[in-house]
Amino acid sequence: RLHSPAIVGSRKSLIHQGFSGECLKEALAPVNFFDKKSDLILMASIEEFDLEDEQRLFHILEERLYRFPEWARQHGVLFLYSQLKSSLEFALRMCRRDYKYASAMYNLRRNRIQFLLPYYLRADFLHPPELAMIIDRDRGYHLIKTVIPIDEAYGNSLVLSNIASWLQTNS
């Protein structure tokens, strides 16, 4: 059993560490998370989002309300929805100017690429975002799957892509 990651010089040393000779006959293939680099770029317009999905909005704004700062919770669901839509519109405009604004992430459970975008709860967009939106594609539409804390978004973005500028300012 290996206690820390290391580069192993020979198969013999792996067998001494408990690996079977049979499993060592097969070479490990590189892991591929995407087919083409364009899979890592979010190119969408606000019209491609289903912002009327009540079930999804309930999940984001009420079931995940505990993820929001206390001061934002006190403003109510209509405020949170308004800021969600404003943040999405702003982020999509930024993506048209700089494709790296949306940070690609790999969802292991769904075996697919999703995107992280900032969710600003303050209207001026000058402060760092309080949360991140996870963007997914489903049947020709994009949708906001959920919202997560920035530190979690930072960790999720490390697998596939460079860290987006809005994530760097928070971590």
Explained architecture:
The chain is of the alpha+beta class. The chain is built from 7 helices and 4 strands. It has helices at residues 11-16, 21-24, 54-63, 70-73, 77-97, 150-157, 165-168, and strands at residues 103-107, 112-119, 131-138, 141-149. Strands 1-2-3-4 form a 4-stranded antiparallel β-sheet. A hairpin with a 2-residue loop joins strand 3 and strand 4 (141-149).
Topology:
Layout lengths: L10 H6 L4 H4 L29 H10 L6 H4 L3 H21 L5 E5 L4 E8 L11 E8 L2 E9 H8 L7 H4 L3
Antiparallel strand pairs: 1-2, 2-3, 3-4
Briefly characterize the structure.
The protein is of the alpha+beta class. The chain has helices at residues 11-16, 21-24, 54-63, 70-73, 77-97, 150-157, 165-168, and strands at residues 103-107, 112-119, 131-138, 141-149.
